[in-house]
Amino acid sequence: MSPSRGTFVAGAVLTAAAAATIAVVVWPESSDNGPAGESGARTPSGSSAAPSPTRSYPLSTPPRTIPAVREHIAARGPGWRPGPAAGVVIAPGSGSLADEGQLLAQELKIHYRGDVAARAGDVELALTPGKGTPESYTLRTHDGRVTISGPDQAGAFYGTRTLKQSVRADGAMPEGEVRDRPDRPQRGLNLDIARKYYSVAWIEDRLREMADLKLNQLGLHFSDDQAFRIQSDTHPEVVSPQHLTKAEVRQILGLAGRLHIQVVPELDSPGHLGAVLRAHPDLQLRNVSGVRSPGSLDISNPGAAKLIDELLGEFTELFGGRYWHLGADEYLALMARDPAASYPQLQRAAQQKYGPRAGIKDLATGWLNDRAAVVRPHGKRPKAWNDGFFRDGVVHADKDIEVEYWTGREYGARPPEEYLREGRRVVNLNDEFLYYVLGQPNNFVYPTGKRIYEQWTPLVLRGTRPVPAGYSGQILGGRFAVWGDLPNAQTQAQVAQGIRMPLRAISQKLWDPRKPGLSWDQFRALAARIDGAG
What we know:
- By secondary structure, the protein is of the alpha/beta class.
- Helices cover 29% and strands 18% of the residues.
- It contains 14 helices and 19 strands.
- It has helices at residues 98-108, 153-170, 200-212, 246-258, 274-279, 302-318, 339-342, 344-354, 360-375, 416-421, 449-455, 492-498, 500-511, 520-532; strands spanning 20-25, 71-73, 87-90, 111-114, 123-126, 137-142, 145-150, 176-180, 186-192, 217-221, 262-269, 284-286, 292-297, 323-327, 381-385, 402-405, 426-428, 435-437, 475-483.
- Strand 9, helix 3 (200-212) and strand 10 (217-221) form a beta-alpha-beta unit.
- It is elongated, with a radius of gyration of 25 Å.
């Protein structure tokens, strides 16, 4: 979660569609040796993939892309270049790839011809069930054809991203075979639209940027103390004047779906609710002296659950994706020196509900579990920030709630190994590397792509130290997070520029956490070449 508000205490819808294949047919060019760029991909010898009969070409080198392809089998041949006769076609039974085909044709400035037979110079997209892992693909350039196969539409789409980037970097797709897949299933950007408003066009530009980098999640933190940014029909009184309409949200979701990006909405509770509580001051938490707790809901009041559950019911219907973020971080009642003495009404409610040994952290955990029970019937997998999970309580957080680990700075911080030992699944939002906090409050500095590229991996959940590799299977991925603590510190354009290289670095490390084959300077130069060609 975001680190501001004085809370540090001193001390695209992804829909599997069987599988996918893309074939590219080319005009041979005997005078062209193809690109000779650098890549971190492997080029094995002695492969079963036979080289082209001609010896007029040197062995190919891997395509230059971000993220780099994981494996490339070299071959001899001219590769493929888009030309005036080239087109994109859809193989029989593969009509669901029409969007991907039309987009690629537009980007490469070649024809889209739909469901017809491929001919020389064409790009053919086809579904092939049962081959490969989710989001994987194989791209083979051989005898004037490039074949990209994968188990789902997303894999086919990522194959088109590789083809597009290779053409942008070097004008061609090299001969040979790419075998590629992501290392982590969750890869993305987290965006705080509550404290800083972002236009629909700006968000859509980020979605397109993410898609080219094979990132597949956009987190939207749309409610906080400062603002509530999405139109509500059940509680219009909580909505801020500058907000996204539901029609605009559906527009964003539509583009995200076409780009195979899942949108992960976050309605944070029981903290970070200042915008909601301004319209419902009777539900605001007060301490024993009657002082209001900024942004915190009085979860001993039955009206609190009613309000939040009505909002959750409304917005889980608007957002049709797989995940829902429940927040649960930085509840100020639990950051007091003596929570039970400061908030006796919460302590009484905890004991009444969970027994004499229960405390306020049990009441907060019960709140989290109850909200998870609200979103599950809507097909959502719940997530929560790591500081919403507590040790040694009477009540335990449900095991299916994914831990989004962001910090070890909070009061009573639990190291990431504790969650992993409990068998929990974790997503990495390490605030040391992945937090872009506008205005740089609380000793934060804008993270650099270089530092992510050279020092971070998905195992580095807290600080700079990785957790043991044996836990790797429980770490589902990560997101780079933009927080609007001082919203006027940067313009939208400055934010886009500031996160450009960090996004490219995290895309590389989530696709393949091994040490990259390119130096940082080479990686940055490649990014400039790919982006500049666009």
